[in-house]
Structure formats: C-alpha cells, structure tokens
Amino acid sequence: xxxxxxxxxxxxxxxxxxxxxxxxxxxxxxxxxxxxxxxxxxxxxxxxxxxxxxxxxxxxxxxxxxxxxxxxxxxxxxxxxxxxxxxxxxxxxxxxxxxxxxxxxxxxxxxxxxxxxxxxxxxxxxxxxxxxxxxxxxxxxxxxxxxxxxxxxxxxxxxxxxxxxxxxxxxxxxxxxxxxxxxxxxxxxxxxxxxxxxxxxxxxxxxxxxxxxxxxxxxxxxxxxxxxxxxxxxxxxxxxxxxxxxxxxxxxxxxxxxxxxxxxxxxxxxxxxxxxxxxxxxxxxxxxxxxxxxxxxxxxxxxxxxxxxxxxxxxxxxxxxxxxxxxxxxxxxxxxxxxxxxxxxxxxxxxxxxxxxxxxxxxxxxxxxxxxxxxxxxxxxxxxxxxxxxxxxxxxxxxxxxxxxxxxxxxxxxxxxxxxxxxxxxxxxxxxxxxxxxxxxxxxxxxxxxxxxxxxxxxxxxxxxxxxxxxxxxxxxxxxxxxxxxxxxxxxxxxxxxxxxxxxxxxxxxxxxxxxxxxxxxxxxxxxxxxxxxxxxxxxxxxxxxxxxxxxxxxxxxxxxxxxxxxxxxxxxxxxxxxxxxxxxxxxxxxxxxxxxxxxxxxxxxxxxxxxxxxxxxxxxxxxxxxxxxxxxxxxxxxxxxxxxxxxxxxxxxxxxxxxxxxxxxxxxxxxxxxxxxxxxxxxxxxxxxxxxxxxxxxxxxxxxxxxxxxxxxxxxxxxxxxxxxxxxxxxxxxxxxxxxxxxxxxxxxxxxxxxxxxxxxxxxxxxxxxxxxxxxxxxxxxxxxxxxxxxxxxxxxxxxxxxxxxxxxxxxxxxxxxxxxxxxxxxxxxxxxxxxxxxxxxxxxxxxxxxxxxxxxxxxxxxxxxxxxxxxxxxxxxxxxxxxxxxxxxxxxxxxxxxxxxxxxxxxxxxxxxxxxxxxxxxxxxxxxxxxxx
Length: 935
Known about the structure:
This protein is of the alpha/beta class. Helices cover 42% and strands 12% of the residues. The protein contains 30 helices and 27 strands. The strands form 5 sheets. A 9-stranded parallel β-sheet has the order 22-21-20-19-18-17-25-24-23, with helices on one face. Strands 3, 4, 5, 6, 7, 8, 9 and 27 form an 8-stranded antiparallel β-sheet that branches. Strand 18 (574-577), helix 19 (605-622) and strand 19 form a beta-alpha-beta unit. Helix 25 packs parallel to helix 26.
C-alpha cells in the first residue's frame, strides 16, 4: 500500500494547510495510510497525551470524561494529528509497525512494538474507534487507528523488560533528563565544581528523571520543588533530592524565600511543571550567571525573556529540546538502575501493566539476560493499591493526621535506618554467601544431612575467610579444575582436598564472570516463577476483599497439605505453614520432605515445592489463586529467601528485628541477612510480613503502641531501600489491647486506622488477639468477631484467622471451620461499611491516633540520637535487651574487604549489568537518521 508520490523526509508532503510549513506548524496533516517510500505506518495501541494538554482539556471540560474524549477525537479528526490548539502540545504513542516503505531509514520492521519519540503535533494520525475504550480521565488513551512516521521521525523499539505504561511515561519526557544531564556535565567540565540544581515540578515524570540524571551527571546540591504535602512526603521518602521544598512554582517571591532556606538560588534550574506562570519564579530561583531550562510546554517564552530583562537577571535561558542523542536509552536506564525512580513513576502512573504471558510448562532456567530488571509489582504476588486487579482501591484520609508530623516521622525513620544500611553494605555473612551458592546451583547435602552449601562456605572461611566473598575462591577453584561442579567441589573441600585462594587481576575477573553466569541462572528461575504467579492470578483471579490468612502446623508436610487444601476450600486465601520451633536457630536448612516437627513443619525446599503444587491444584479447582507463606528469618534467612523465590512462595515472614528480639540472633548478622533477603523478595515479587504484632505479646498494647508505629516506619524504610514496593510491605499490627480496658475497641480502631493512613498503599497484616485469650471459647469467639469487625472498618488487607481455642489446644479442623465462619459472616454483613466509618474530627479515635504518632516521633528522635543498635540493646522494642556484640551467629559475620565480590548482590542491585551468558542488554534500540530533531 505504497503511494508513488515523492516524499520529503521532513513530512512536507503530508501538510494539507497551510502549504509550505513544517508538519508541526501546520493546521492540518494528511493521515492517508498509503505510504511514501521512506515512511512507516504504525497501528496504534495507545496515545499518551502531553501533561499540559491534558490539564487544559480537563479544565476546559470541568473533568467531564465524555467531553474530553470527544474533544480529542475532534482535534484529531479536524487536524489529522493530535495537536492541542490551546497549549500547542500533543504527546506520543505506542503501537506496532504495520508496514514500512522500501527506503524507510528508521530500521524498523513489521511486527516491532514501538514508541514514538516525536510529538503527536507533527505525526499524521487517524483514529478508527472514536476512543471508545477511554474514559477521558487519564493521560493514557487506549486507541485504535494508525500513525505515519517520516524519514526524519524517531521511534524506539519497546524493551521487553518494562511495562508499556512505564515506557510511555518515561519516553514521553526522556528529553528532559538528557538535556539536564548535559548541562550539568558541561558545568562541571567548565567550572571544576558540582553545580547546584533546582527542579520545579520535581515529583512529576520529567522532574523525577531529571533529579536522577542530574545526580548521575555530577550535580551537587539537589533541590526538588513540589506543590503539596503528599508530593513532598513521597519525594522526601525516596531521597532523590537533598532538600524538598513545598512551594507554588508560580509564586516567584515565595519560592525565592523558600530556596533561601536551603542554600539559596541554584546554578541550574529546570522547569518541569505542567502549569503556566512559572517563568519569573524560575528566573529568581537561579543565581546570576546560572542557567534556566524551560522544559514545560506551558512556558510563555516572551514572558520569560521580558521577565529576565525586567528583573535584571543575568541568566542563560534554554528552551527544552525533546531530542538528545541517546535520550531514550538513558532515561530507561535510570528506571532500571535507580529503584526510587521506578517507584515514584509507578506511583504516579498508577502501576505498571502486566508483562507478557509465559508458558504453563514447568519452570526452568532459560539463558538469562542479566539486564532484565525485576518484573513489575502489582498484578503478581504484590498487593499494590490503585493497580489493575489490586486488592483494594485507595481510601480517603479519615484521621486528619498532620502531614508535617507524617513527613517528620518518615524522615526520622530514614535517618535512624541509614547507618544500619551502611553497615549492611559493608559486611557479609556465612548465610549470604551460602545463599549466593544456592543461586549458583548448589543444592543437596552430604550423608550426614549437612547441606553442601554449608560445607563449602565453611571450607572457604577456614582457609581464606569471607571478607572477599566465596565467589572469587570457589569459581577460581572450578576454573583451575579442582572439581567439575559445585557439589563436587564441596565434597572435595569437606575432605580437605582443595586449596582455596583469592585470585587477583584477570583471574579474579574470570572467576566473577563465571560466578555471575551461574547465579544469573538462579535469578532466571525466580523471574520465571514470578511471571508464572502473575499468569495464574490473571487466570484464576484473587479475593475481592481482605485476604483470609490461615495457619497449618502439624510437623508432617503431607498432613499439612491435607489441612491446607481443606482450609482453602473453606475460604482461606493464604496458607501459612508454621515453621518447626527452633529452626530459626539452626545454621543450616534441612533437606527433603519432613514428617516430624515441633509445633510446626521444617522449612525445606522440597516442603515448599510439595505445598505449592498442592495449592496450585486446589486453586485450579476453586478458580482462585491460593497464596503460600513461610518464614525467612533466623540464621538461614537469606537461603530460605532464595528457596522461596525458586519455589514460588507468595509471602514470607521477614521482620527487621524479630530474630534479634525473640530468638537472640546477633543484630549485625540479622540486619546484613535481612537486606539481602529483602532484595531477593523484591526480585521475586514476594510480599513480606513484618512482626510488630509480637511486640504486643510481651508489652502492653496501649503503652507500647508507639513502638509498633516506629518499627513499621523502620521496616518501610529498610524494605524500600532494598527495592520492595509499597505493595510488598505487609506491615504487621495486632488486636491486643486488654478487653477489660474502657473504650478498648475504640483504641483498637485508632491504632488500626493510624497504620492504614500512614501506609495507605501497603497490604497491612492484621493479627488476632492472643495475649488476652483465656480459654473461655465463647468470649474468645466474640473477641475474634470484634477483631474481624475492626479489620472491616479500617480496611486491613491481610486478616489472620483468630481461633477461639487459642491458649487452650492446638486448633482442631472444626475450630478452623468455625473461625472461618466468623470471618465470612462479619465481612459479608459489614460489606462496604468502611465507606461510612468516619471518626469524629478531634474525637477520641483521632486524638489517640495523633498521640501514638507523636510518641513514635519522639521515640525515633531518641533512636537517632543514640543509634538503632544501641536502642535495641536498651530494650526499646518488646522490652527485650539485645546488645550488638551478643547473640547467636556473630561469628558468621565478616567485614567486606576492598576487593569483595558477590555477583548475586550485584545482579540484584544492578539489574542492567551485562550478562556474559546473554552478551547484551535489554536497552531499546533507538532508530533515527543522523541529524534528525524532535519538534
């Protein structure tokens, strides 16, 4: 379908009126699907409207989605392109290449899924569906039709490792971070110092990317300017900027005064807002001799020029150019390598779409491309809010918490947690090194039942220590022919028949390369399991209300399976297999299926496999995905995290302090192991469950309520630093106030609602009463009913089934049936009662919640003053004293040497690193002839 007409690479032949102008300046373009020789036709999947354009349309039509949809259709119909006549802006598109002209220079092929890197204001466009699938209420527009790319257009093949929604958001603004990075780098080269940078609209898509790009290019002080408290809290929590200022970017004097409190005017100011009127503020925010970059389509350039003249401001002003060489690859690389960038962008766009389906065949390791980042959170095991298929929708605030207090609490938690993270980054443990070997393919045990991973790590530690990690000596020994594989090497090392040494130079790099290749195969299995979970959830669906969480704990995995299947048929959504008492103190992971345990069942890879297979079978029967939970805690925390990822567990008990407080495991060992475990959970899409509920079993639930809140904030910081999304933070709390206390139920509601509003996007885990269960089963059944009601009123996401026989006997199956009936009745009867539950402003519930938050802030301030490890030693949490140099497992900790290497950590922390096995990255290939520009 190629037209014979001679074409212009600039698209002049597509201009209908007025003739002789470039396509962007034209009133109307010709979207005829017949191609000229150098053109490409793209079948459209969706459009992404420019933020300024969508804002103008929304305001003009007062938020009426139908009217907005009709307005967009009219613009495209009348102009042959999406070119907002008011803002002069358009957007970009995603689609599939349908046909290419014989001389098309873009390098695209039919079937390629692409995103345009030129504005819709110069792209011939025809819609065939009248945008019926779009509600008009977001910038992303599902659409059907076609678009034409010229010889000097630009497009990028979509990377397979990132969701479409995320790619659209990034590629739509990828010129901003690239230009900002260039200006910062030029300033560094010119002056020899790191320039300060202020970003207006710092929490938007282009603003977030610009902050990260400026930092990477060598910027010094980074200041983010945001419009409201919610944006300030989100940006401050992620730490992309050194300072976050809440100010109106249109108020030149107010912004200037606000910046005076954090270092004064910037050397470089980048305007990324989508509102008009920011020109004067940006100029005043910039020091004399500095640079202002206007990357907003709402900018009035006459206002900027005349304003600078009138203010006597000696500043260089640059119009943001949407094209920079390599801009798409650079922006997508920021998303892959800076977790906070991805989290902020996914929060802004709602959440990422699900990746492509995967085969239903058994999961095996495919050749692994280490450039692939972890698949997106949301539709898989994580429980993101505002995500397609999410557990719950966002809820309005009901307590009226002071946003200043909330920001203060999060900032203190980050300040208290940062030294612990720094410590974890500079230490390793025997368990971390064993986990790396398991990712590298080592499994099995010797005839005495001691895992080969333990044997091999112990042998390396005895000979050369752990300061350099085990990857260097182990894979060097394999390269030297000491054994054909890891298991063989472990056997020889156990017999003291191997001499290990730390290789240097080229030998070291070869050893690391081989280790990375092996460990990448383990990560590939984990990624495939995450995708399989996602596919099964899409096939079978998930519960529409809170997830009902039920425990099995017989000691015999085969009996556990029978009870778990029965519980699922009775309504349970999550099956938690309680671990055998004392396993957290074993410094090895038992092998095989087990039939004996003590008040629980041993956590082993085979037990995980058997239970997961059984739950998949009953999920298919019920057409509802049943989740599996176990424990990643104790001395083998990192190894169990690896095994959970390999066998597709969905949730793991993984608290930052539980092992320290309740199992007397060394605090340093615990925090180092915990960081690796959470990095692994983040990759695997596993939801962690934290253990704050346990504090209330050893302390009074009223007087210690603030310690729960403080711990939740710390767990949030540690989790996000390790890469977990909000939807993977199953923060724990419990219904444990003495029921004899007057107003006890109101206090429970205050505590539960405080957690809900502090962590609106986290799947909170709500634990039933245990401490005050007396053996009176009728009273216990009533207490559990109140617990279930509190969960319904406050929107808890994961609800553990309370047993009326708690503290009497190990529950019978009939007890579980009655407990499930209790949950079902309350949830069914309450329905959407949460919508009607509004505590009185300034009333008892609101006052109690604010009081607990203030106490938590005071506690975090004291922790910052003395340090978290000293605070734990002083008995701050759970009333238990645990000194940093005491506890079990201290001898398994080693400080990392300068040459330490652990490819497992490198893969988890830097998902765009090259894989020797794959030999390439998943970065998109941008196709553009030399010298083309975006307009």
